[in-house]
Fold these 4 entries.
Entry 1:
Amino acid sequence: MADEESPAYPKVPRSTINRYKPRGKYDYASIHDIVNTMPIVHVSFPTLDPEDPFPAVLPMIGFMASFENQAAGLDEALDLYLHGYVSSRIMRLSKDGGSGAEKGLPLTVAATHLDGLVLALTPNSHSYNYRSAILHGYATPVTDHEEKVWAMEEITNSVLADRWTNTRVPPNKTEMTTTQILRVRIVSASAKIRSGEPHDDRKDLKDEEMRKKVWVGVVPTWIQYGEPKACEYNLAGNVPDYVKAFVDGENKEGRRKAEEAAMDGG
């Protein structure tokens, strides 16, 4: 992972890891990688309904990038772009900034990878290997046409690499009108990462009879993409090489990360 000298988000009370502090990460690279390799992020926002005290939560497609610096790496300052329908509640609220003290609708965004089931000697010591990130920021609609099309391309390719240029593009007027992109300026964020084997109590480790009966270890876990299936109206022939390459590459990388996490001494 990134070292302590890497650019990082500021530690503030809402983002500081308090339990298992060594698992906490604040550097850009760790946090941005978790978000950009997760197909779905969960976005929480205030509804501003005086009759309903609960914030809303939506699963959304998001991607971290920089329109001003399109060559920026994961270890540089990035914005979060979210894709949605123009008349949805979150998009409507973002137009006037909601109740945020700064310009924009205040959001909390969560992304989590499950890397393994950690099976210990006792239920209380069971755990997961995981990589999770929580981000806080202010969302505003993207109104510039060039930035909007760029963001739509980035988000599409985050779903499946090279998909944008292998579809009917550019989007038509109706698609551009009904689609809204939010740019989220991140003000604080943190990640929490757990890897390695189970951590059992010393008392249980001394009980050899019990250890002979209870299997302990890690079940590596990752997203597995299946064999692509053509739909009924497909006329393009066999599965394209770029789709095959994406499926194979993601499956191999997911497995590699999960198995490395299982063997990690962290």
Entry 2:
Amino acid sequence: MNTEQSSEEMTNTENPAGTETPIRMTIGEYLKAAREEKTLSLKVISQHTKISVTILESIENNNFDKLPSKAYVIGFVKSYSKTIGLDEAECLKLLNEAYGSTEHTIAKTAPTSLEGAPPTNPPVEATPSKEIPSQYLTIAGVFVALIILFAIVINNTNTKPGEEVAATEETIEKEVVQTPLVDVKPQELSEKTPLTEDSDPVVEEEAAEQTDDEQPVAEEETKPEKKVEAAEKKVVEDQKTEEKKKEEVKEEESKKEEKKITLRAIPMPLYTETSEESFYTHLPENIKAAKIDGKQNIFINAVDGDTWITYKSDNDDIKKFVLHQGRTLLIRGDIVRIFLGNVNVARIFLNNKALKISSRSGVKSLVFPQENAKDYKLPLFIYPKPGQVITSSEYEESLN
């Protein structure tokens, strides 16, 4: 690799700084293109954001009539953009344009701008409506009515203490069985009267005690059965707990599989050189003179709108930002990897040669020089967490 240090330069064209025009790609197309570039399904996005697939489809198709109020849609777009690692402020800007007004600018911080580029006015986050939805008022009214009805039923079922005592006493009187009176004749004693042993009260007490002692023995005999039931119940509960843990482990493994990104080869060719004169009107003379032999000199001019760029030159850090309309970017290096969104609005030159690039989705991954593309895989850049970006090569190494 050439030891010359790679550098990047930002240059301004003659276009006025304040004449930005809206981006041609809508918020729905923007989100869908970025999602497809990362080969993620709507089902995966739904699982991470807790937003239904139907709502996500409506956002991507720009069907705002099928969505709730704008305040809710703002929350959906924020969550969606964070999940796939897009610039939240840029997404909210596109959402406002889709609603056809700029009453509420959304993001608190402007997207990262290039060196030397004038900062854009920072938008202010829109506050959701404070009005309480009518369905919540209806639910609250029903809940209060149920509480009142429940209190009335309890009040009617209570009986007076005096009436309850009288009924109890009457029941007791009916259940009491009176012993019938029997005439007892006195026994006349004589010499012939046989002698009989009177029952010993002490013996009767001991017999009564023995009878009373029999009940605890019966209770003790039933205790082992209760212990067996408790043990069986515990075994069943332990089995349920174990099954639940297994299901949770399977769910975790399933989620990890879904998060795994499938890497694929880069289709060729990535670009072709063109001699159309209309392209070369966007290549300034100072850029032509700044070409360094032996390096990949890539010049990008955002002619018809904004384009978002993620790129890595040689071993330099990954850079990610929005190249606004009328701005230009010069990248140099031995090997340069670039991902562009809304690529059709830009004019791209390699070593002062105009490149013709086609993309139906509006996004494009490029490798310079083109013959080195076989050493890399799509997507060129992966966003494992919001605000974090790594190359596909780094991702592939982490799996090993």
Entry 3:
Amino acid sequence: MPLYETVLIARNDVTQQQVEQIADDIGSELETDGGAVKKREYWGLRSLAYRIKKNRKGHYLFLGLDAKPAFVTEMERKLGLNEDVLRFMTVRVDEIDEAPSAILSRKSDERERTFRGPKPAGRFESGRRRGFDDREEFRARDSFQGEEFRPGAVEE
């Protein structure tokens, strides 16, 4: 049977479990038809490039399918009728790569690069930076520490 890759975008109002349920329904129908889901990835809630049906975000789901062409047309018809699905796209491929997709591998790279080192001095900053202890009240307090403080004593 031919191999297909399908990406679908669901509304941001639905939960991740409901999106997974859509994929489970596709998988169960596919197994009864003699096919199989080779790969399944949930890419998360992501921003859309432009508004689709008044939505700015959507749940992305990727499916790698081993199915008959008749099943794919029926699946696309049902996805088009489903109100929770904003967009979908199915492409026929020669093989389904078992490695994580580019979207998931980029997410893991972003998690590794959170700390980028100390911040360099700004272009317009000059002189010494003022820290917490450089405020005037702390300088005044520090200058009196050498002298003895007696409550109630009157200076002469």
Entry 4:
Amino acid sequence: MESRWIGVDGYEVVPALREGRQVLRVLRNGWAVADCSSVDEVARHVDLADLCEVFEFPSRMALDGPAEARTSSHHR
């Protein structure tokens, strides 16, 4: 699973490879703004406090099929 951070005004930070080296790519509205080699460089383009990490959760159906319908234990 790849890490990804989103911020305000359409900013996004994603890991990328450039010339065989890992960089943090700053995007705005899907367009590359900069490839940064450090978090300090990212901070020149976007306020780090505005970034939120995005977590991709696998769907339940993809793991084990549809969930079984059950009644609450309070109604037995």
